[in-house]
Amino acid sequence: MENAPYFIFAALCFLFSIGLQKRTIWMWYLGWVLLFLYAGFTAEGSFFMLYDSVSVATQGLALGYLLGKIFLWGIVTYWWATHRHVFGGRRGTQQKRAGTDMSKSPGA
User: Fold this and answer.
1) Which percentage of the chain shows pLDDT scores above 70?
2) Which among 27, 66, 77, 108 could disulfide-bond with 46, CB atoms 3.0 to 4.6 Å apart, if both were Cys?
3) Residue 62 near residue 45 (C-beta atoms within 8 A)
4) CB 62 within 8 A of CB 53
């Protein structure tokens, strides 16, 4: 039963892969759940690496690993938060944001 969280995570990723093809609204929310779970797995592994390190060099490597994961996770979550408009519409179509019509020039 110690592998149960990994099987649950794998099942969620499977659902996520199917739902991303259709881009339904619930997929955007499930994406946040997966990002939260990924952050937990990353934090657990990183803090165990920091705790179990025996020298300053291994502590530095573990800290670098943790900071790199935090940086990448921040980029992914920022992208996910700004692409909410892609989900919920018809497949292959995206809703226009207000003020993004490039056909009209400001001087005309």
Assistant:
1) 81
2) 66
3) no
4) yes
Which amino acid is residue 105, in one-letter code? S
Expressed in angstroms, the distance from the first to the final Cα of the chain is: 67
Integer Cα distance of 47 and 49 in angstroms: 5
What the block records as the tokens of 78 is 């920022």
DSSP state of 72: H
- For 53, the enclosing helix (H) or strand (E) is none
Q: Which of 77, 87, 91 lies closest to 25 in space, CA to CA?
A: 87
* 89-to-20, 28, 36, 69, 84 alpha-carbon distances in Å: 12, 12, 25, 32, 10
Q: Which amino acid would we find at residue 60?
A: G
d(CA 52, CA 34): 27
- CB-based burial, 16-52: b 16+ in 10 Å, e otherwise: eeebeeebbeebbebbeebeeebeeebeeebeebeee
Taking 60 as the threshold, does the pLDDT of residue 82 lie above it?
A: yes
Tokens of 74: 């921040």
